[in-house]
Amino acid sequence: MKILVCVKQVPDMASKFKPNAANVWFDETDLAFRMNEYDEYAVEEAIRLKEQLDSGSADLVVLSIGPSRVVEAVKKALAMGCDRGVHIRDDESYLKDPWQIASLVAAYAKGEHFDIVFTGMQSLDRGSAQVGPTLAEALGYSCVTTVIGFSLEGGVITAKRELEGGAKGVIRLKLPAVITCQLGLNTPRYPTLPNIMKARKKEIAVFEVAELGVENPRTVTERFFAPVKKGCGLVLEGEAAALAGKVVEILKQSTIVLRGQP
Amino acid sequence: MKALLVFEYRRGKLTEANLELLSFASGLGAQRSGVLVGEEALLPAFEGRLYLGDIAKCKEYDPELHAEIVLQATQQENPDYIVFIHSSYGWDLAPRVAAKLKIAQVSEITGLSDGKFEVGCCNGKMRRLVRPGTPKAVLTLQEGAFPFAGKSEGTPEVETLVPAGTGSGLEFAGYEEAEKRGIDLANAEVIVSAGRGVGKKENIPAIAELARRLKGELGASRPVVDAGWVEHYRQVGATGQVVSPKLYVACGISGAMQHLIGMRNSEFIVAVNKDKDAPISEVADVMVIADVMPFVAALTEKLRK
Fold first, then answer.
1. What kind of architecture, by CATH, is found in domain B2-161?
2. Does the beta-carbon distance from A223 to B128 stay under 8 Å?
3. What residues does each domain of chain A span?
4. Partner-chain residue, chosen from B94, B126, B298, that has the shortest CB–CB distance to A226
5. Closest Cα of chain B to A142: distance in Å?
6. A22–chain B Cβ distance below 8 A for any pair
7. Quick check: A130 contacting B, CB < 8 Å?
8. Which end of chain A is more exposed for a tag (fewer CB within 10 A), N or C?
């Protein structure tokens, strides 16, 4: 069985984001990048499936698109247990819309005949939630999104979709399929030191964007900016005890919570 | 300009967010029509044409059949925009419709600006201004971004559509209920919630102690529940409970949209976070910029006196 897992590298969301020179995305200077959290669940689920299938019969490929820094995310997935890596080299991936990204993955995946593709339900930075289903459309695969439960038995996938309010929809489907993973699907493993060493020997194939062919974008970003703060909330800074004192006073004045207390 | 609104039906009900589609269409100044996979006895109230696909024929979840109904309605109506709510239904179906029509999709719109769309990015911290690069586009709206004031009225003119295809080959095997045991946070007057910023499971009792001091309940954000630090029935957010207490204290919660949906209607919100720009600051009445645990300890101590 051939399994593909698609990962994106994104900045730490606690970072301060500044617009880049073109004012259409963030400036990467000083940002620390890591694997998109949703994709970590996708990698873990793919590895669990490979383990269930008995490692010998499964071929598990991890793919990422972007500049050379994304090789770190590929290496992490290899250290977690993927068999080989694919790096679609693109210094301008941040300018591509989800349609273009999905088309690049499809251009690579078409000839490979993967049985199943895992990816995160969305990225933390762009957050469109489009790439998974769009890829499925391009490949003609079935697709279930926002999956928090997955099993494969007798060629049939049982996937649980997370719905609003905490209920789940249970879906059964056949291969080939694209599964987009929601947080909480599993507990992603940490790569162990021996596995990190082993991963160094694993192959990472490099493709240039031009070889795969780029589609025209379907959306245009005109500007990247910080939202205007709606509420004029009070911002308090300082030392913990003094802050606590201020907050108690505010709660007494503005809420009924501490009424009746001196 | 014409907007085709994709209404959402789940488990015998129309979802409340449907009203936001109407509000968005008004904001856009668009002539509206609707499409619904649901039942004839339960229609959204508005004046205009409604294309109806029968839920029994299209099933509760079959993206191919649902997409086909939307495509049929699109063909008849020829709208400029096909609009979904960015919900588990919308973000699943919208990209399929956009791909089949080979048109742009703009996801999770938070606002309108000169006919262009503002969308959230960087986990809700930043925004992009986006315009479709194709004449028609699929749009999804962030839940809560286009609130509808008052009550929608009217009776749509129904046109029934029947899918010709056989569907996705997916089998919908039913629903699994959310865990019901535990407490109902919806009745709590005070909720003190722990987020990832509390650092580790061992810090949860200190947050629970603060909740007790404020005569409230412990709540949690999704990552904390996923990590097994707090029980699922205490999760506040789109996939947990939606709450509106008199006081909500968010400890180390950055404020992903999933969480904000669950608590932004609280009467008074205090957020404690190291990051001044965390999206929770958009809804907080008081934003305390501090290391979470020392502040929580200090506040608990003050309340003990």
1. 3-Layer(aba) Sandwich (3.40)
2. yes
3. 2-212
4. B126
5. 7
6. no
7. yes
8. C
Query: Does the distance separating the beta carbons of A227 and B110 come in below 8 Å?
Result: yes
Q: Is B226 on the interface with A (CB under 8 A)?
A: yes
Interchain contact B157–A (C-beta under 8 A): no
Per CATH, domain B185-304 is 3.40.50.1220: yes
- pTM reported for the whole predicted model: 0.91
Q: Does residue A55 register a pLDDT over 70?
A: no
Best B9, B61, B108, B128 residue to mutate vs chain A (most A CBs within 10 Å): B128
CA neighbours closer than 13 Å in the CB half-sphere of residue A170: 9
Residue of B15, B105, B244 best to disrupt the A interface, most CBs of A under 10 A:
B105
CATH fold of the domain at A2-212: Rossmann fold (3.40.50)
Indicate if the pLDDT at residue A261 is higher than 80: no
Domain residue ranges in chain B: 2-161, 185-304
Residue ranges for chain B with pLDDT beneath 50: none
pLDDT band at A188, cuts 50/70/90? very high
3-state SS of chain A?
Answer: CEEEEEECEEECCCCCCCECCCCCCECCCCCCEEECHHHHHHHHHHHHHHHHCCHHHCEEEEEEEECHHHHHHHHHHHHHCCCEEEEEECCCHHHCCHHHHHHHHHHHHHHHCCCEEEEECCCCCCCCCCHHHHHHHHHCCEEEEEEEEEEEECCEEEEEEECHHHCEEEEEEECCEEEEECCCCCCCCCCCHHHHHHHCCCCEEEEEHHHHCCCCCCEEEEEEECCCCCCCCEEEECCHHHHHHHHHHHHHHHCCCCCCCC
What is this model's ipTM?
0.93
Domains B2-161 and B185-304 share a fold: yes
Burial bucket for residue B127 (CB in 10 Å: 0-12, 13-18, 19+): buried
User: Which residue of A243, A248, A254, A261 to mutate against B (max B Cβ within 10 Å)?
Assistant: A243
Nearest-CA distance from A231 to chain B in Å? 6
